[in-house]
Amino acid sequence: MSTRRNKYNAVKTIVDGHVFPSKAEAQRYGELKLLEKAGEISELVLQPRFDLRVNGIHICHYIADFSYVEWKNMEIVVEDVKGFVTDLFRIKKRLMKACCGIDVQEVRK
User: Which terminus, N or C, of the chain has the lesser number of Cβ atoms within 10 Å?
Assistant: First the structure.
């Protein structure tokens, strides 16, 4: 029996009981946990979900990899770890800016 591979060759990784779809995302989680312990960020959320609406009409949901509050400027940061950027991600990133006023930060690994 063969093991089914992810189409982007990502390897599922478990850290702190959380299953991450890639090693890169798991690594970023580790970095964010260290920043949280150091007091540089707070309110770390995994897989935050955003409702994207245009003129009151639900278009879709966007599920980011992480969100947190950055203490130096007291801003909410939304991150998505990317090894490969899809057209769908580009559209949802623009919708996040237009609908929620949030610039999604791409973390490249």
Answer: N
* Residue numbers of the domain that contains 72: 39-108
Q: Mapping DSSP to helix (H, G, I), strand (E, B) and coil, where does residue 1 land?
A: coil
Q: How far apart are the first and last CA of the chain?
A: 31
**Tokens found for residue 70:** 């950055």
Name the domain count of the chain.
1
Quickly list DSSP for 15-65. Answer: ETTEEESSHHHHHHHHHHHHHHHTTSEEEEEES-EEEEEETTEEEEEEE-S
pLDDT single digits (tens) 10-64: 788 888 888 888 899 999 999 999 999 999 999 999 999 999 999 999 999 999 9
Residues 22, 10: contact at Cβ < 8 Å?
yes
pTM of the model: 0.85
